[in-house]
């Protein structure tokens, strides 16, 4: 008898490492060189973790041999607490901070501790698909709200409120946004918090890119924005500190903690089940948050990350039939394809053909739970020279598939 996977996985997807990614691995095994622009993996493109963080981790290896407190090392949690205090957030104490094996683990943990079958969570569309998948795995129902491309991809507050039901438990906010690169206006962030207060919902704020900001954009953290709604704010070392493989993340609880005793007990229980987060990485958190912020040099107009964003954005918008909102943060572009000008059936067809013909791997927009089949996400992490060659190949691919004008 065939051993079958759980039926709860049947409707779930994670296209960032899905079927097209598996096709790319197959091509690599056959000897082809693939340019992988499907995932935000800074170290693969020479964005290395600062030496000071590496040094402190190495110096503490012997201290990391045993288990730690399930919520995290005291020093790491205090560093997180003080980071948010430095941003003007009040009412945080050590017990409000949980350290995780990356934000990914914490997303799953928060959903598993909260949801019963049929409970709904509002998630942006497009989204980082782990949120949608984690809700489904926990037995809940993801409900996607609109982020408006015509408004720099800011969430549509009216659409969010229209989709709130008696089953809704929380609202997810990804800011700066993956995959669009949007950095939300303060009025939008505050508007979502006010909706959470009005309808007694939890706000889950994914702020992993909160230091990767361009052109003077300002990030407004949700932490501490309300005393009436519970707010769970998440951050980590993967992007700002280019330490994705270290798996170091955190979440901070602010607001209506007095209304969430049972839920916090659930979070603590699940955190205890995995014994503790990666201990050695936690020795780098204090250094990361308290030391010199090297990401600042990368996002200025003369910084490598900014220059790459600017080049990729301009080259995409120079392709007739392709348009892209300029990102204000993160490390992604989410271009739109005018399918009427090309022979692609949809974004999936484009992504597969780009891989097969140009050996470039990107991710289709539907993989981010975006209903329209005409977008894709691209990572602009390669060095300028390589990025320019890659973007030229993408432009050539569009020309090769342009419909002949009659």
Fraction of residues in β-strands: 15-25%
Report mean pLDDT, rounded to a whole number: 94
How many beta-strand segments? 15
Second rung of CATH, namely the architecture of the largest domain: 3-Layer(aba) Sandwich
The topology string of helices and strands comes to HEHHEHEHEEHEHEEEHHHHEEEHEEEH
Distance between the termini: 56 Å
CATH topology of the largest domain, which one? Aspartate Aminotransferase, domain 2
Bulk shape: globular
Q: What this model shows, in words?
A:
It is a single chain. The chain has about 400 residues and is of the alpha/beta class. It folds into two domains: about 10-40 and about 300-400, Aspartate Aminotransferase, domain 1; about 50-290, Type I PLP-dependent aspartate aminotransferase-like (Major domain) (Aspartate Aminotransferase, domain 2, 3-Layer(aba) Sandwich), CATH 3.40.640.10. The chain is built from 13 helices and 15 strands. The strands form four sheets. The protein has an eight-stranded mixed β-sheet. Helix 7 (about 185-200) links the parallel strand 6 and strand 7. Helix 3 runs parallel beside helix 9 (about 280-290), helix 4 crosses helix 8 and helix 11 runs parallel beside helix 13 (about 385-400). The radius of gyration is 21 Å and the shape is globular. The protein starts with 18 loop residues before the first helix and ends in a 6-residue tail after the last helix.
């Amino acid at each position: 008898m065939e051993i079958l996977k759980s039926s709860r996985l049947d409707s779930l997807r994670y296209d960032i490492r899905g079927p097209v990614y598996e096709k790319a691995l197959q091509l690599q095994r056959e000897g082809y060189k693939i340019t992988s622009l499907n995932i935000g993996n800074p170290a693969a493109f020479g964005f290395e973790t600062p030496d000071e963080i590496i040094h402190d981790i190495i110096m503490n290896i012997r201290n990391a041999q045993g288990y730690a407190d399930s919520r995290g090392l005291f020093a790491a949690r205090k560093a997180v607490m003080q980071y948010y205090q430095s941003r003007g957030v009040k009412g945080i104490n050590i017990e409000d901070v949980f350290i995780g094996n990356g934000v990914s683990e914490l997303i799953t943990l928060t959903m598993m501790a909260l949801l019963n079958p049929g409970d709904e969570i509002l998630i942006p569309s497009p989204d980082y698909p782990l949120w949608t998948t984690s809700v489904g795995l926990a037995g809940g129902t993801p409900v996607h709200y609109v982020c408006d491309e015509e408004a720099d991809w800011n969430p549509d507050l009216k659409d969010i409120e229209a989709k709130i039901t008696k089953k809704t438990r929380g609202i997810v906010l990804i800011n700066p946004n993956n995959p669009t690169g949007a950095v939300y206006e303060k009025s939008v962030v505050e508007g979502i918090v006010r909706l959470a207060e009005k309808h007694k919902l939890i706000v889950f704020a994914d702020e992993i890119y909160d230091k990767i900001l361009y052109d003077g954009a300002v990030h407004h953290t949700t932490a501490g924005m309300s005393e009436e709604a519970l707010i769970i704010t998440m951050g980590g070392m993967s992007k700002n500190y280019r330490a994705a493989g270290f798996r170091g993340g955190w979440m901070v609880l602010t607001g209506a903690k007095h209304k969430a005793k049972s839920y916090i007990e659930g979070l603590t229980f699940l955190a205890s089940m995995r014994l503790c987060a990666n201990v050695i990485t936690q020795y780098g958190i204090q250094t990361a948050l308290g030391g010199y912020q090297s990401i600042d040099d990368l996002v200025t107009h003369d910084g490598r990350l900014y220059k790459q964003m600017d080049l990729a954005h301009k080259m995409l918008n120079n392709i007739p039939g392709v348009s892209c909102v300029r990102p204000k943060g993160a490390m992604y572009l989410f271009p739109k394809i005018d399918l009427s000008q090309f022979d692609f059936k949809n974004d999936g067809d484009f992504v597969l053909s780009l891989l097969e013909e140009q050996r470039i791997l990107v991710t289709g927009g539907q993989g981010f739970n975006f209903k329209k089949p005409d977008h894709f996400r691209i990572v602009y992490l390669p060095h300028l020279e390589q990025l320019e060659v890659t973007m030229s190949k993408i432009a050539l691919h569009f020309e090769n598939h342009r419909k002949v004008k009659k």
